[in-house]
Design goal:
Blueprint (H helix, E strand, L loop, with lengths): L6 H13 L3 H38 L1 H7 L1 H24 L12 H13 L2 H10 L12 H33 L3 H24 L2
Amino acid sequence: MLGVTDYGTFVITIIVFLAIPGPGNLALVTSTSKGGIKGGLAATLGVILGDQVLMWSAVAGVAALLAAYPEAFHAVQWAGAAYLAWLGFKMLTAKPGAAPVLNIRAGQYLRQALLITLLNPKAILFYMAFFPLFVDRASGQGLVTYGFMAATIAFLTFLYGLGATLLTHFLAERMRANPAIGRVLEKVAGLFLIGFGIKLAISK
């Protein structure tokens, strides 16, 4: 199909990757719990935009450039780790009644998720290694094939984000009656973000 081999497996693999717990999923859930459906969908768009930038960067060869210059790779990696840890710290130390960290306007939720996605240099290397596995060398159509794959990932990410947003919103509405639970979950989310940041900083 448009130069993609085993399209069904490609789709299933993307869905599995989307479901793996990580800072992107955490940002999506937190944005929805603070900003409702609008916040969750804005964060989903941020993840989609970030993925598109990383995917086309991989196609353009930026991944090879980062691999050739470890210092540049580590600089981006540490910047991402610091950003995640900073977000986690802000959530962990937020006082009851304070404005939420992932907060206020749809544009801010979008930018938050976009930055979290972009500050993951390993994703570029992943896409560069992942795409060739499903490109049919005999019938591949270059940019058309990559564009079709990128569109598929964007569509699946939107569906996943929409489902996660609706589920999170449903659960959040039922927890609003007990603010203490929401505060505990915010602290837990902060700890997870700090953990993701540490993991990113020490990974090779």
